[in-house]
Each structure stands twice: as C-alpha cells, then as structure tokens.
Write a structure and sequence with these properties.
With about 230 residues, this protein is of the alpha+beta class. The protein is built from 5 helices and 10 strands. A 5-stranded mixed beta sheet has the order 7-6-10-8-9, with helices on one face. Strand 1 and strand 2 form a beta hairpin. The relative contact order is 0.10.
C-alpha cells in the first residue's frame, strides 16, 4: 500500500509557489502599464512641443507697429495703417496709404495721412466722424513702415531701394547696398533730394566718411544716392 503523505505535501508546496508567482504578476503588471503610459505621454509631448516653434516664428515675422512712436513718427506713402473706431467694426480695418499720401475711409472719405503722425491722423478722423457718430473713439497704429526708403543708383553692389534705419547716413546706405563697385568714382558721389517741388544736389565725400570724418547730411526718405 502506497503512502499518500509525501505526494500531498509536494502538491501543497507547488500550490503555494504558484500563489506567490501569481501575486508577483499582479503587482508587476500595473507597474508596467504605468511605465508604458508615462512613456506614451513623453512621446506625445515630444511630438507636440516642436509644433509651437513655427507658430512663434510666424507670429514674430508678422508686421507690427510696436516700434513706432505714435506721437512723433511721420506717416508716409505706402505705409500700412490699422485704424480702429471703437464699437464700429464696419469703420475699422487695415488701410494702405496711397502714393498721393491719402487714405479712404467709410463716411470720412479721402483724408490726408502722409505728413501726419498717427495721433494727429486719429484726431483728424475723430473730428470728421463726429458728424455721424457721437463721441467717436479712434486709434491709428502703423502696421508696416514702407515709406522710409532711400534709393541707390549707379556703381553700387545692389541698385534699388534701401529701407532706412534711424539716423542713417549715406555711407551706411551704400554699405547696405553692397558697397561700391571697382568702377565707382568715389569723388563724385552725390545725393538728390526733392523738397517743395525743387530738386537739390548734395555732394558726398565718400573717402572722408570712410576715414571717420564728416559723414555728410542725414538722409531723408526719398533721397537718391548717385554713384557715377
């Protein structure tokens, strides 16, 4: 007759061992799921984070009037203006200044913009709107500056318009245009300026300016630098 004691004991040990294995499996499975979930979140964040960069670059490339002093900047032809009439969206919008220096607005009609500061233009529009609106509130913002240009012609690296910077000199404008060509006559450079319907020819001593001497007259929008 075979004794059953050892077989029962062995079976009991195997059952206990399987119980421990199952318990460990139940503990480690949630940890694995948590690690996988965390990894997925990190992957998602790494995929979405770079998408914000193009948006930031796009917003940075948009034209803005933030650098324009509304009290002192003088509006010129081809500038772009954002005109806002409070609570009147039909009278608000982005309006370009025409080559003749004027803009067209609903109710107001043609109004001179060139030669006025944004604050002065806002006051002009306010006065004209008072005929139609009670206590109009008008603001004018320069969205893009396109009128502040000088022009280069003759023996320079790049002929054409140059966007002006504050207090730009003729030497700086020539440098922006790629400098003089080997065939340029540096002794006969001059600036053409039109004021009051008259054209003025202003000589510019290039060699003296390069040596750190007199930089010549401060440029004005519309000046043409001629390099023979």
């Amino acid at each position: 007759m075979i004794e059953a004691g050892p077989m029962v004991e062995s079976t009991g040990r195997q059952s206990k061992l399987w119980g421990v294995i199952c318990s460990l499996a139940l503990v480690t499975m949630p940890l694995g799921l948590m690690a996988q979930t965390t990894g997925n979140k990190q992957d998602t964040s790494s995929q979405t984070a770079p998408a914000a960069a193009p948006a930031a670059q796009a917003s940075a490339s948009q034209p803005s009037g933030a650098g324009v002093d509304a009290a002192h900047y003088v509006i010129g032809a081809e500038d772009s203006l954002q005109i806002t009439v409070w609570k009147e969206p039909s009278l608000s919008g982005t309006i370009p200044v025409r080559p003749d220096g004027r803009i067209s607005l609903v109710l107001v009609g043609d109004t001179q913009a060139a030669g006025r500061t944004p604050m002065q233009l806002a006051d002009d529009i306010t006065v004209k709107l008072k005929k139609y609106i009670q206590d109009p509130n008008v603001s004018v913002l320069v969205m893009s500056v396109n009128s502040q240009k000088v022009f280069l012609v003759g023996e320079v690296g790049h002929v054409g318009p140059v966007m002006m910077t504050s207090a730009m000199t003729a030497l700086q404008a020539i440098a922006t245009g790629g400098g003089l060509t080997p065939y340029a006559n540096a002794k006969k450079i001059y600036i053409l300026r039109s004021e009051g319907g008259k054209q003025e020819k202003i000589p510019f001593n290039y060699k003296q300016a390069v040596k750190g001497g007199a930089q010549g007259p401060e440029l004005k929008p519309g000046d043409t630098i001629v390099v023979p």
